[in-house]
Amino acid sequence: MTVTGSTLVITAASPAPATAPVAAPAARRRAAGRAPGPYRTLFALPGTRGFTAGNLIARLPMGMFGVSAVMMIAGQRGSYALAGAVTATGLAATAVVAPWTARLIDRHGQARIAVPATLIAVLGSLALIACVRSGAPAWTLFASYAATATTPNIGGMSRARWTHLLHDSPAAHHTAMSFEQAADELCFMLGPVLAAFLCGVLFPEAGTLAGAALLLTGMLAFTSCRATQPPVSAAPRRGSPLRALGPLLPLFLVTGVVFGSMEVTSIAYLDVQGLGAASGLVLALQAAGSCAAGLLYGTVRARSLKTCVCALAVSMTLPWAAAATGSVTALAGALLLAGMATAPTMVTAMSQVHARTPEGRLNEGMTLAVTAIFAGIAVGAASAGWVVEGAGPAAAYAVPATAALIALAIALAGRSIRRPSDRSRVVRTTTAGDPR
């Protein structure tokens, strides 16, 4: 939900503490009678704008590839079943490959691993286009799309850079994590819309081609910003991220069920209402609410994970209630409000991933969290589809509501799930070879 560095080419020296470059601009603005906002202060740090620009360009295709593949394969081969099976195989391959890619990035550095891994993924996308266009056997589609599983977790690498830069400033780190979550929501809101537009208006392969080009361009821009890369830790690698994140992974899994089931249920509900063409816009309201809430959350003090999950559980009952009224307007408003509880929950949960992951393995830890979310999305989509077929789309809104209640039960029952103190976050991200 979520779910993750260094310079092997050249090892970048650690930048000055985050407070040093921030203090001078802040003091000047206060002297001028205008206090800087937290995001203005954040991007006053040298190098942050450059890697953020590359990060956003490379992140946008994450919301494009699935839709583009489905539209391309279904359009050329005339089978949505084949298209769905190919994309499902890609997700399964990602669940296996992504943690290994993240581990290599932690061990050898972002630029040294992320660039060749991205090239493999781009070649996989191009191979998929060639196989679809040439009428190659179906198995070649599965093999080609599975190769895209090497795509690095660009969101995790960006979060790792912020953690490295802001290791002595918990408040600024919270703001940065909120920005990253808002960026996730924005890209997953715009990505499918852009993919559908390109495939529908231009040609079926346009979405995949554009996604591959954006991914490679953004990754090259991101990795070229060497000064902000977190250095590889020379300390022995102790502890397992999987073991450290054990109490959190079930929570990420169930949260993924919320996301996957909500999307499928909403699409089915609007289709029954004769508004299937507007489903993208209505779903975008949920992402927009989460994006806005994420940016706002970055300006206030972080809340406990239990509080955030409680708000998520309450908000996920709203679409269920709105669907019972039969009003699409009420459903749209409910989805907007439900989305506003998503970003704070994910920001706070990811902060615990940062605090718990062993030193030098942050990308791997975050990728494990994202993998759990993706697994939950698959389970949620399948569960919601089964309920839609058996009881109708209005009743299927009980699936995300129930999953959110299970997430709350996990958060309340788990004694180890709590908000880490600022001190613990600083210790875990700065102490080399921390054995905990």
UniProtKB/TrEMBL annotation:
InterPro entries in UniProt: MFS, MFS_trans_sf
Keyword Mitochondrion annotated: no
Transmembrane segments: 56-74, 81-101, 113-132, 248-269, 275-297, 328-347, 368-388, 394-414
Keywords: Membrane, Transmembrane, Transmembrane helix
Signal peptide positions (record): none
Superkingdom to which the source organism belongs: Bacteria
Protein name stated in the entry: MFS transporter
